[in-house]
Amino acid sequence: MNFVSDNLAGASAPVMQAMAAANDGFAAGYGNDAWTKRVEGLFAELFEREVAVFLVTTGTAANSLALASLVHPWGAVLCHHEAHIAADECGAPEFFTGGAKIVGLPGDGCKLAPDVVADQLARMRAGAVHQVQPQLLSITQATECGLVYRPEEIAALKQAIAPRGLKLHMDGARFANAVAALGCSPAEITWKAGVDVLSFGGTKNGAFAAEAVIVFDSADAGQMPWRRKRAGHTLSKGRLIGAQFEGLLADGHWLDLARHANAMAARLASAVEAAGKLRLAWACEANEVFLVLPQQAQAALAAQGIQYIAWSDAALPEHGRLQQGEVVGRFVCSFATQAEEVDRLAAVLATL
Amino acid sequence: MNFVSDNLAGASAPVMQAMAAANDGFAAGYGNDAWTKRVEGLFAELFEREVAVFLVTTGTAANSLALASLVHPWGAVLCHHEAHIAADECGAPEFFTGGAKIVGLPGDGCKLAPDVVADQLARMRAGAVHQVQPQLLSITQATECGLVYRPEEIAALKQAIAPRGLKLHMDGARFANAVAALGCSPAEITWKAGVDVLSFGGTKNGAFAAEAVIVFDSADAGQMPWRRKRAGHTLSKGRLIGAQFEGLLADGHWLDLARHANAMAARLASAVEAAGKLRLAWACEANEVFLVLPQQAQAALAAQGIQYIAWSDAALPEHGRLQQGEVVGRFVCSFATQAEEVDRLAAVLATL
Amino acid sequence: MNFVSDNLAGASAPVMQAMAAANDGFAAGYGNDAWTKRVEGLFAELFEREVAVFLVTTGTAANSLALASLVHPWGAVLCHHEAHIAADECGAPEFFTGGAKIVGLPGDGCKLAPDVVADQLARMRAGAVHQVQPQLLSITQATECGLVYRPEEIAALKQAIAPRGLKLHMDGARFANAVAALGCSPAEITWKAGVDVLSFGGTKNGAFAAEAVIVFDSADAGQMPWRRKRAGHTLSKGRLIGAQFEGLLADGHWLDLARHANAMAARLASAVEAAGKLRLAWACEANEVFLVLPQQAQAALAAQGIQYIAWSDAALPEHGRLQQGEVVGRFVCSFATQAEEVDRLAAVLATL
Amino acid sequence: MNFVSDNLAGASAPVMQAMAAANDGFAAGYGNDAWTKRVEGLFAELFEREVAVFLVTTGTAANSLALASLVHPWGAVLCHHEAHIAADECGAPEFFTGGAKIVGLPGDGCKLAPDVVADQLARMRAGAVHQVQPQLLSITQATECGLVYRPEEIAALKQAIAPRGLKLHMDGARFANAVAALGCSPAEITWKAGVDVLSFGGTKNGAFAAEAVIVFDSADAGQMPWRRKRAGHTLSKGRLIGAQFEGLLADGHWLDLARHANAMAARLASAVEAAGKLRLAWACEANEVFLVLPQQAQAALAAQGIQYIAWSDAALPEHGRLQQGEVVGRFVCSFATQAEEVDRLAAVLATL
Q: How far is Cα D48 from Cα D186, in angstroms, rounded to an integer?
């Protein structure tokens, strides 16, 4: 049983079928194929407006390209200090931007609060040549701790950065899970709330390797074609990504997958809470469950061969600090997670 | 009928099947999966030695990562002025290397001669801080004009750069076609002839998006894992590329595909020569035919809806310069090209 | 009266004379002149060993070149979060290194403790491709809060980083003040304590624009000539910097200047302490005095036209936090500061 | 006798005096001093319009900052293949621009012709993501072979690039010599002829280390303050450069120096032509004389201890190619060159 990540399963069956179906015949290269074109239309429909769409194969590429298009080399990107762009991409944002500074901010559960952002901005002198200039705020939806930003929370963050003119980026590696959790429209938690550019994740939600940079204002998209090509992320057989997204977006398949993953996580969280043996590090709002595991629990899981990963405790709230021997265990559910697996895991945890 | 490029068809049936077969179950992420591990073994077998293998999805990424690992920002890369790295990658090598200089050299048919390389090196002062320092020679196999370097030609180039300590990179976007054409072993035209690092192309030869950087001396590979990750080219579901290569390398499938493509090109070239109406811009040595097309021929092809592209004439030999109205037409054959298509094209060309 | 910074006076008289004296006749370009060569010898003497010396005009250039020579683009530099390289150079280290990450650590008075460094290293996984790799620790001597590292403190930091193989860089913008304060030899607080590369500051200590990167192991210096040239920091008339350093280093002039500046600061600190009206934010160990200024004091200073700057309170110890209305005022003494000026300032502060 | 370069003498006496005079008292840091402010006014006067002025210490920095402010990382800069930015700055433009491509074009005497530029542009596809996009043309005034662009020649180049929207940069390392030679106003050969940004050289014309980037349209200057700081080129004691320029610009001193240097070169060229023993590689239009030197002449010069450098023959016209044993010798005159030195050199050359 593997709860390590939502990127360890392959593609969902409909996505795999879409890839296979896309294999026939000749197609124009470098993203000029029919699949990619159709996907651009599907995204416009999904977001209820014109959008510029750039398909790539990894989330790191999507995030880094989005940032590089909107931030100068002497710019600063504000984000949570545990954000993927800050902590897990080996400096890719710095590489793509030409050396911009990623400024990490605190926040329980990897969520940023408007006053924390405003305080940081107040400490960064506008126009001073000695310091990098804040140009973008990046938030993760759902966060690295599985929490979800509500539309009004996003709007409040946008309001905090508006006086200084920062752009708002959303790392949506688990955007589908957030939409499914909130029951809102994609538009509501993106451009309607102030998001300028979105990394729309497919890979963690049933695709093999498919991410889309969605730029809401075409004026922000001008650099993307060159930045993408120059980074080696413009696939010659672009339909490989296009087909995956067509498979995902058709008939709301992407949301069905996310709802399933979320349901599995909720099932696990409920069972844990019902058992009353372990505490959740953060509320379960999307497809991840973070449990505070005493040593006994760690041993039990190891004995049962249940795979998960020990997660950073850096975003725990003050009142939730770990005791000696405890770790935060991350259990991620994906489209491929089975209810029986969740129940078996819950059973193991309940017998501690 | 589409002779525009060998990257317009999808994947060969066995490759597509390998991808589909790889879709089941969980697999370790970021290239630690079983497919990738097996492919590393297959490459070691293919090259008859230990090699370090780094899978990526595009040739631009493969080339740029290879260069960046071996060249300082103040280094220079020598190559043909029409080489893909110099002319078709939007400055990706400059991006990945941190601004190294790509120095373009002349050569008929995009082939470099040792004396041209040596002359260039003689013009670059060793140790002078005012000039970038030559650190790598990159050759393309087969060349952008469809010509093939023989093992002894490669060895002679290595000899030309050895006194200055340059590394030798081979852009093998059409490596399979070259191996098939030469009938030699992969080892013979790579490390045995002095190649230090190879971009082994899969995408133009039946894969969807699969390229491998093959590093022959592990001492040259140390930077690659970080450079790849940092460029967003480390796929979380790495088996997507691994499976493609497993499909390609199994049972010599990659060579079968290349032999077919070469045979189709040879069939076209022979027919053209037999008809005696058009001249070849360069000899047909691999899977591409370059024809000098007078206006009448261009019109006839357009009338028949036959697709090809007008190619640069910059690597034509002195005695082969174009006349007024002529263009060089590039006709590329791939694994998917049918003999009947070739014959129909040949028939059109024969009736001019 | 101006206590804003030690870079607001011009050059000391002997330095200015050395510059004027260097103006005659022709001299070899680009650092091959006699002045630069002599200065290289003087530094070797000063540090009691062979050193590689690279002269530049700014501290930002010195620091950034030093870092870039020793850190990969995917490397991380540990330093205090208020260090000049982290907070005051507009991302120059990121620019020169190709996007390495500057990781800011806490520490009272901008001094780093070995356990803080070791804890940070423990959180950075060695060999993981998802994270940047720590490759260098940079400390500032004297610190941005005017404190001084003793030889054994530096050695302890070196010990903390040794297991992970990090290099140790010292930003010595106020190196002279530290040496004067400690009464030790330059060797003792640099290479003998584990420093690999030093930015030796001249500009804040009586030069006009003269900084030297001192590399103690020549194996670490190989990239510098190209990196410096490529950054536009190789002056054609290099004697302009060479002469300044010759003026500074002759007859211990640099130490005389620093001793004077330190004495002026000590005079001010003593007077403040004697008056008992204001508290020092940090101990006065070199040439800077940081005072906690209530609003009344700020008003009195403004009324007297006494210039200083409000300094960051981010490196204050827990027990020293500011009260409402207070600021930290930085008063810097330089070679040009007069005792009467100090006394007048002290008098103003004593009458609060 | 040293004719190697115009950067081997120190500063002219008035410039040195201006530096010494600037040494008194405190001054605001980082270019906010009175000298820099006055120099900004002097440049506005000189160019008969508002200009944005950025002082730096080297020509490489001036050129690279100018380029980086106007060219994207995926942009291309067109220039002569022997231009300083292409051949003598160790890739600094690539470093500062984040990897833009420097595209070298041919031209006798390092002068570019409009049709050569237009032909190159025609070969670069607008909007194609596979290729870097031309964004700037850089010309050198006077050229690396000592030739001068006339206002109408500059205007014609501007016309050639206007349809593609390229900016026009002038590397004016020897701008003073060109103005002196042409007898025109600085405005006439810069913004009135279409130049957008100028590297105004001081160092080769009597300063110690003083260059100015002059931006004619303030909309082009927005990035400069950050790019300069981030490159370590914002001197804290900025008056060091400001004073040099004040010395140079006062009372037309800069033009007097250039006229003298030009006159010395003309004296040498006339003498050589009168003697009829040697041919000039290119016409003497500014302060440099390029002579085709047979082996006998090389030996005679060596015997007399006369220093010059062998120059590239790559920009010789077809009809002027070197014979076996010949080299191009470059003899540069500066403000410090004496008539007697010229005459002694001429005498040596006349006796061959």
A: 9
C-chain residue closest to B130, CA distance: C229
Q: Do C131 and A90 touch (CB under 8 A)?
A: yes
Closest CA to A102 of D6, D89, C86, C96: C86
What's the pLDDT at A1? 83
Nearest CA-CA distance, residue C245 and chain B, Å: 23
Q: Average pLDDT for residues D44-49, to the nearest whole number?
A: 98
Q: Mind spelling out the 3-state secondary structure of chain D? A: CECCCCCCCCCCHHHHHHHHHCCCCCCCCCCCCHHHHHHHHHHHHHHCCCCEEEEECCHHHHHHHHHHHHCCCCEEEEEECCCHHHHCCCCHHHHHHCCCEEEEECCHHHCCCHHHHHHHHHCCCCCCCCCCEEEEEEEECCCCCCCCCCHHHHHHHHHHHHHHCCEEEEEECCHHHHHHHHCCCCCCCCHHHCCCEEEEECHHHCCCCCEEEEECCHHHCCCHHHHHHHCCCCCCCCHHHHHHHHHHHHHHHHHHHHHHHHHHHHHHHHHHHHHCCCEECCCCCCCEEEEEECHHHHHHHHHCCCECEEECCCCCCHHHCCCCCCEEEEEECCCCCCHHHHHHHHHHHHCC
- CA pair distance D134, D113, nearest whole angstrom: 17
CA–chain centroid gap for A244, Å, is 18
Beta bridge partners of D215: D52, D197
Q: What is the reported pLDDT for A352?
A: 84
**Tokens encoding A1:** 């049983």
Distance from the A160 Cα atom to the nearest Cα atom in chain B, whole angstroms: 30
User: D323: how many CB neighbours lie within 10 A of its CB?
Assistant: 7
| Contact state of B336 with A58 under an 8 Å Cβ cutoff | no
Containing H/E element for B104?
A: strand B101-105
Give backbone dihedrals phi and psi of A135, rounded to 5 degrees, phi first.
-130, -10
Residue C130: which of B130, B133, B229 has the nearest Cβ?
A: B229
Q: How far apart are CA B18 and CA B202, in angstroms?
A: 14
* DSSP letter for each residue of A105-132: E--GGG---HHHHHHHHHHS-TT-TTS-
Report phi then psi at D328, rounded to 5: -90, 120
Percentage above 70 pLDDT, chain D = 100
Task: Please give, rounded to a whole number of angstroms, the shortest distance from the CA of C225 to a CA of chain B.
Answer: 6
Identify the bridge partners of residue B214 per DSSP, sorted by sequence position.
B53, B198
Nearest residue, CB atoms, B101 vs list D74, D94, D98: D94
Confidence at residue A243, expressed as pLDDT on a 0 to 100 scale: 98
Q: Which residue of C has its CA nearest to D97?
A: C95
Whether B219 and chain D come into contact, CB under 8 Å, resolves to no
* Residue C305 near chain D (CB below 8 Å): no
For residue A41, give every residue at least 6 positions away whose Cβ sits within 8 Å of its Cβ, in sequence order, or none.
none
Cα nearest neighbour of A102 on chain C = C101
Q: What residue type is assigned to position B17 of the chain? A: Q
Cα D321 → chain centroid: 25
Report field, pTM of the whole predicted structure over 0.90:
yes
Average pLDDT over residues B259-280: 97
C-alpha torsion sign, points B103, B105, B110, B115: negative
For chain B, report the end-to-end CA distance as a whole number of angstroms: 18
Give the pLDDT score at D175: 98
Tokens, residue B236: 């979380």
Chain B interface includes C159 (CB < 8 A): no
Quickly list DSSP for C57-115: S-HHHHHHHHHHHH--TTEEEEEETTSHHHHTSTTHHHHHHTS-EEEEE--GGG---HH
DSSP state of C205: G
pLDDT surpasses 90 at B352:
no
Tokens found for residue C237: 């008339």
* Non-local CB neighbours of B303 within 8 Å, separated by 6+ positions: none
